[in-house]
Amino acid sequence: MTTTETFYLAALAACPGIGSQKLTHLSEFFGRAEDAWCAAEDAYCEAGLTVRFARTLADFVKKHPQEPERIASDCQRLGINVIAIDDDRYPPILKEIYNPPHVLYYRGTIDPQAERIAVVGSRRFSPYGEAAALDLAEKTAAAGFTIVSGAARGIDTSAHKGALKTGRTVAILGCGCDIAYPAQNRRLLDEIAAKGGAVISEYRPGTQPLPAFFPARNRIIAGLARGTLVVEAARRSGSLITAELALGEGRDVFAVPGSIFSRSSEGCHDLIRQGARLVSRAQDILAEYGKGQEEKRPHRPEMTLAERRVYQVLSFDRPLAVDEIIQSLVGEVSNLPLVLMQMQQKGLILENELHAYRRAERE
Hints:
By secondary structure, this protein is of the alpha/beta class. The chain contains 17 helices and 11 strands. The protein has helices at about 5-15, 20-30, 35, 40-45, 50-65, 65-80, 90-95, 125-140, 155-165, 185-195, 215-225, 240-250, 265-275, 280-285, 305-315, 320-330, 335-345; strands spanning about 80-85, 105-110, 115-120, 145-150, 170, 200, 225-230, 250-255, 275-280, 350, 355-360.
């Protein structure tokens, strides 16, 4: 149950620039967040803050005297939970990192003891990267792991969608957890929270996404997971920051290889050269944690002659547009749109946002 003390701690954490270390100094010195909130500027200096920041914090409290009550009201109105670092619901694995967030806001359900794997990658993904993220997240979640990612465009979104097919996933945001960024992922975030997962942020409700928040967000993604899988990343990708943070905390790092001609895979190849575990299937991850099992080939529904002809020209990692399917077909297929719709209903193929089609399962 969220206490008044938690909202005072949340109000302190809302002060720009305070960070985990300063919050730790205040908590240790004052004992109670409410006492720290009501303290004088000189007391902040005695607690170990610099004179400059002590003045910043004192001014923040003076300008926002009702901040604890405002946060409590906003959370109640928006259906958002708040937990402090000493709460039983706070994941123990996250407490182990160098600068854990003192407060977490979330929608949905946090399982403190869940086993988690982070899946991250480029916002500018290829069809290959999309297929890999969907497949690996789906099968890793099916084995009991919760998939952690950042709900960004591209690989993050694919990882969440793949995990939702078979298990749970957690989205870590660089804004308030009442805000969808990007906006088109609002339904996805709602689905994550509704299906046993959680939408989590260290920022109070209403906080807009700013560039400085995303590197900080990445430490939570890496900190919640036993291992981090990078699916597709260029050399300067933000996903590599997450991988470096995971390595710094002694966590496992995995990487999916890509084409030697693709710049979007250069970051993954660099990670593999540096010792990251190469992943070509979910079992490569599961085996690291004693969960490796021989992958069972899914039962494939019966196909009509027209469906078989279409299926033969499709692949798992390269979606084809309708015109490309027509050009590749051997034999005539009448009413192709209807055939494609029927194949989707049977779970044989998937359609992406560009209305291109690929096989739903890897051979």
